[in-house]
């Protein structure tokens, strides 16, 4: 029998403009996969941009956010006793706009806030359009990783987030740094450990050109040794992706010394044996 996992903590919905399926289909996929809980965590509005510059294919619109919250709370009611539906959000870290994000987050009863560094000085490192930069050669790739490291350390220390997502995201299209995480891996691990943010074990990367979970095995081992806590995530953008690869994700985590994962409710993590 398939193992029952406590939660898939990172699930998108059609509201962000690049995920498919009804909310119910994501929840029911979670039930079929034997998950005890599922956290919808769609992309928060791009709060750092003026509304007219926000791309509707990247994140939900600002006026969609209260409806999203109401819809997820209603789903939680509807599925009570069958699967626990939790309210999350994936919020970008936008350096210099921390106050705006804090205001946006405090208005809603989120169970978990996922913090993501996609944005590097005005462009998104995981967007297909970033390939023009990433393909400029190894020196530019290393420069991008180094800048990403700075921003990740700031995001960890911002106090805004419960969980840091896809920790080594610039590898998405297969571009590796010359040195482990730009030569700053131990500094990054120390910053994450100090922050008390959990880190997601994400199977999302295996669906991408890099074909590898986030974080990479060596980074995962260092995080685990530093006492960092983890959540399980698929970063599903379609119902079929819910809980995808969790058996292997959990096996790799156990091999790295991870014995439990967290489930977040009202922004507090409860640990569950993996
Ligand atoms: Zn997305
Ligand atoms: Fe993301
Ligand atoms: Fe995501
Ligand atoms: Zn993501």
Which features would summarize this protein structure in a list?
single chain; 274 residues; alpha/beta; TIM Barrel; seven-stranded parallel sheet; two-stranded antiparallel sheet; 8 helices; globular; binds zinc ion; binds fe (iii) ion
Poorly predicted runs are: none
Largest sheet: 7 strands, parallel
Distinct small-molecule ligands in the complex: zinc ion, fe (iii) ion
Q: Structural class of the secondary structure composition?
A: alpha/beta
The CATH architecture classification is: Alpha-Beta Barrel
Radius of gyration: 17 Å
Structural domain count:
1
Strand arrangement within the widest β-sheet reads: 1-2-3-4-7-8-9
Task: Specify the CATH class.
Answer: Alpha Beta
What helical percentage do the residues reach?
Answer: 25-40%
Strand content: 15-25%
**Helix count from the secondary structure assignment:** 8
* N-to-C order of helices and strands: EHEHEHEEEHHEHEHEHEE
CATH topology: TIM Barrel
CATH superfamily: Metal-dependent hydrolases
How many strands? 11
Q: Outline, from the CA principal axes? A: globular
